[in-house]
Specification:
The protein has about 375 residues and is mainly α. Helices cover about 60% and strands about 5% of the residues. It contains 17 helices and two strands.
Length: about 375
């Protein structure tokens, strides 16, 4: 019996200390004198991640709307016990992303580079690692470099047009999201890795298969997200993998094979891998430490994921809206036809850049349908 009483007493003491910790953590903004929203529960201002009714994006929007109705320029909310600063004023938001950008050196996503190497990409890195990686990668994404890849984008459009034509002739329905995902997979696979993915001819092509797998949420993923939100530094000390082991192996091996082949055969292409090879040569010439294989694979991995999913989703919503707004659709179609006429029946990079109405349609769609629900920044 004494052991049972000791156990109960110990459990009660731990529970009491835990409640004190939560209460103290969730009083951060009041102690700082910052306007805030009162936490709904131990989870803060978000709903139960294991039984979501709205989703994180709508929870955050609700918090934003509440602070805006109170005419606050900024405010504080909580993700579990983690205090989150939410800017409301548009000028403050602009300053964070421009003038004061140098003070924000990360996005708050912890990872263990040793056990989860593909997570060590630009979006997750913090501090000096992030600054150095960004400084070395920024010249890679100039408009001039993107222009070199435009032909690849056009070449990948051929199989898509042929695939859609075949379905239309057969009178079959179109899964436009899947079609566009295959299209963007082919583009990113070619632009990033210099490979022909052939997603339309082979629906089970490896890049398409692993692309689907990464965006398939498993129950273990929810548990990991819960732990990371609750204890942000948790992944630094525990050997956790956010990327499935087979996916990690596939991407690292793919990058290694391409690098080895091009180096051995002096092959050059206007793509992401070639840019890394050139940076490696430059680093060696300047006596700077070159990228490791895992570092290159991690950047190629996020380039692939960020490129194919966000682009296909944006185009899907855009086509959905155009289907319900015939007048806008006709006006946009006429602008595209005019661009073809001006360029002798060809579509060029400059012609795309000159399509002002296209730009408005796409930007308007991005405002209506966000592909990224929140952006976290960590103050240095």
């Amino acid at each position: 019996m004494p052991l049972i009483f000791e156990f109960i007493a110990g459990l009660a003491a731990l529970t009491f200390l835990f409640v004190l910790y939560v209460r103290y953590s969730q009083s951060y903004w009041s102690r700082k004198g910052v306007p805030y929203l009162k936490p709904n529960s131990i989870l803060g201002n978000i709903e139960n991640p294991f039984n979501p009714k709205h989703g994180l994006a709508l929870d955050i929007k609700a918090s934003y709307d509440s602070l805006k109705r109170r005419k606050e320029k900024f405010g504080g909310i909580y993700f579990f016990t983690e205090p989150i600063f939410m800017p409301i004023d548009i000028d403050l938001i602009k300053n964070i992303f421009t003038k004061d950008f140098s003070h924000f050196l990360g996005h708050g996503f912890e990872f263990n580079e040793k056990y989860d190497p593909l997570s060590a990409h630009l979006f997750n890195l913090e501090g000096e690692k992030w600054r150095n990686m960004r400084m070395r990668l920024s010249p890679t994404f100039t408009s001039g470099k993107m222009k070199y890849m435009f032909k690849t984008l056009l070449d990948c459009g051929g199989p898509m047009i042929e695939y859609v034509d075949n379905l239309c002739r057969k009178g079959e329905s179109l899964d436009i999201k899947e079609i566009l995902a295959c299209y963007t997979t082919d583009i990113i696979g070619s632009c990033a890795f210099g490979l022909e993915c052939n997603s339309f001819k082979d629906p089970d092509a490896e890049f398409r298969t692993y692309g689907r797998k990464v965006f398939t949420v498993r129950f273990t993923d929810l548990i990991l997200q819960f732990l990371v939100f609750w204890m942000p530094s948790f992944p630094k000390y525990i050997p956790l993998k956010f990327i499935p082991a087979d996916t990690e192996k596939f991407f690292i091996n793919a990058v290694k094979s391409i690098l080895d082949y091009r180096t051995a055969n002096s092959v050059k292409r206007n793509d992401f891998v070639q840019m890394f090879l050139e940076m490696q040569e430059k680093a060696k010439a300047e006596g700077v430490k070159p990228f490791t294989l895992n570092e290159i694979a991690a950047q190629a991995f996020i380039f692939f994921l960020a490129g194919f999913e966000t682009s296909s989703t944006t185009m899907t919503f855009c086509l959905h809206e155009l289907a319900f707004n015939q007048e806008i659709q006709d006006k946009l179609r006429e602008e595209i036809r005019e661009a073809y006429r001006k360029n002798n029946g060809e579509l060029t990079y400059d012609a795309i850049m000159d399509m002002k109405y296209m730009d408005k349609v796409v930007n308007g769609n991005c405002i209506s349908y966000l592909t990224c629900s929140l952006i976290l920044e960590i103050v240095a």
